[in-house]
Structure formats: C-alpha cells, structure tokens
Specification:
Strand content: 15-25%
Shape: globular
Largest sheet: 7 strands, mixed
Number of helices: 6
CATH topology: Spore Coat Polysaccharide Biosynthesis Protein SpsA, Chain A
Structural class: alpha/beta
Distance between the termini: 29 Å
Strand order of the largest sheet: 5-4-1-6-10-7-11
Bound molecules: cytidine-5'-triphosphate, magnesium ion
Order of helices and strands: EEEHEEHEHEEEEHHEH
Helix content: 25-40%
Length: 234
C-alpha cells in the first residue's frame, strides 16, 4: 500500500436484523445495484480517498458475488461480532501496512446516499483540525425526555442537539487507540466519536445532508431509492 492521506473503512459485517430481509441489508437491491455497491462507489468517487477497507463477515455468502469497479484500491478484512470490532479490524490492517498516520473515514455500508459534496465538506473542514469529527444533522423536532412510564418530564433544548451519522473522520492511530482503550475498559461505543470522547477529546460536528440515512428498517429502502433519484449523480 502507498502512503495516502485519506482512507475509508466500511463496516459491512452486520446481519441486518431489523431489516427482516432474506439477506443482510447491504446486499439488497436499490435502484439496480446493491446497497453496498452504491456506498463503495460514493466513497471512491471522491478523488482524495486513497483506498477503502471493507469489513465482511466470515459467514457472508453474498460478498463474492459483488463486482464493483472502483477508482481506488479495495481491501477486505474479516468483520467482528460488533460494529466497533469490524472497524478495529480495518484499522489494524491499515496500521500494519501504512507507516504514516492518515485520516480515516469510517462509513457505514448501510448509508448508500452519502453525497460526494458532503465528503468534500468534511475533508475541507477537518483536515487541519487536531482531532477530527463526524457528519451529522441538526435535530429539528421538539425533543422530550420521559420517565420509565412514558410521562413527559421535560422538553429538551434542541438547539445544540444533533443526530450523529457517518463518515466519522479521525487519525488512524488515535482512533485505533481509542477503540482499544474502550474495549479494554469494557465500554460500549456505538460510534467512533464516542471512543475519541472517552479519551477526553472533542471531535467536531460537520453539518451534512439529511438524506444520508442509514438503511435500518424495510421502509428505509424506498426512501433511499427516492433520495438517490433526487440526487442524480450527487
Ligand atoms: N456492522 C459491522 N459489523 C457488525 C455489526 C454491524 O460491520 N458486527 C456494520 C453494518 O453492516 C452496517 C453498520 O455497521 O453497515 C451499521 O450497523 P447497523 O445499521 O446496526 O447494521 P446491522 O447490525 O446489520 O443491523 P441490525 O442492527 O438491524 O442487525
Ligand atoms: Mg446493528
């Protein structure tokens, strides 16, 4: 591997339980291509992405039938039991092969509508930052906190509330250390930023488009299909 500046790690080893389909959701068809093909193409379409590491489950019978032609190298690693394990496997292979400390963009395979313009916004806003950051969307609903009986206890000020999305962009070695530390302390981290936050660091939030949805439940597929059509070649 060469010594690039930006790499992508794509966790794609989930089973898609909430999707209730006959195969993991990343292999469902979306406007003529599988979800994961769209996702990989979006990342590879950015000229500064030097390569992609994709984490695939050892029990995955579908990946071999994917034939995606990309403008950058693609390497496969084995996924793990949880998303963070899959990500860490990708980071380990990168740190083994690269001597330097590139930025890594971790992006869910299940987010095929990522706009290349949002990748670009992220690289531009964060590449000089000390820590890195993530794409997110401001919460625009009124937010309530309830007790265990679903009684409303308070309205939460939404002005500084965001929904975290991906890509999440951090330095390879710091992110690897963050995830390893979280594992060793048996802390559950559901995204990369959480691991960085546990180290006492403050990642940036970069405002992305709300069409960068994570396909999770069956109705998300129709929504993603519509978003892709609306975007054209976005
Ligand atoms: N993922 C992974 N390894 C795991 C679990 C999840 O690489 N052990 C990936 C998924 O393939 C997905 C991303 O992490 O691209 C986000 O996870 P999620 O949306 O939760 O996907 P699934 O775990 O597949 O879905 P579910 O939770 O409904 O089973
Ligand atoms: Mg999951």
């Amino acid at each position: 591997m060469s010594n690039p500046q930006f790499w992508a790690v794509v966790p794609a080893a989930g089973v898609g339980e909430r999707m209730q389909a006959d195969k993991p959701k990343q292999y469902l068809l979306l406007n003529g291509q599988t979800v994961i093909e769209h996702t990989l193409q979006r990342l590879a379409a950015h000229p500064d992405i030097a390569g992609i590491i994709v984490a695939i489950s050892p029990n995955d019978d579908w990946w071999p039938s994917i034939s995606v032609s990309l403008d950058c190298p693609l390497h496969v690693v084995e996924g793990g039991a949880h998303r963070a394990d899959s990500v860490l496997n990708g980071l380990m292979i990168l740190s083994e092969y690269l001597d330097d400390d590139p930025w890594v963009l971790v992006h869910d395979a299940a987010r095929p509508c990522l706009r290349v313009t949002d990748i670009d916004k992220m690289l531009t806003s964060l590449s000089e930052h000390d820590v890195g950051g993530i794409l997110g969307v401001l919460v625009n609903d009124t937010v309530k906190r309830t007790n265990l009986n679903n009684e409303i206890m308070e309205s939460v000020d939404r002005r500084n509330l965001w929904r975290a999305a991906t890509p999440q962009m951090f330095r390879l070695r710091q992110l690897k250390q963050g995830l390893e530390t979280a594992f060793s302390q048996q802390m559950t981290v559901t995204d990369e930023a959480s691991a960085i936050e546990l180290m006492g660091l403050s990642p940036m939030m970069v405002e992305g488009h709300s069409d960068n949805i994570k396909i999770t439940v069956p109705e998300d597929l129709a929504l993603a299909s519509w978003f892709l059509q609306q975007q054209g070649e976005a």
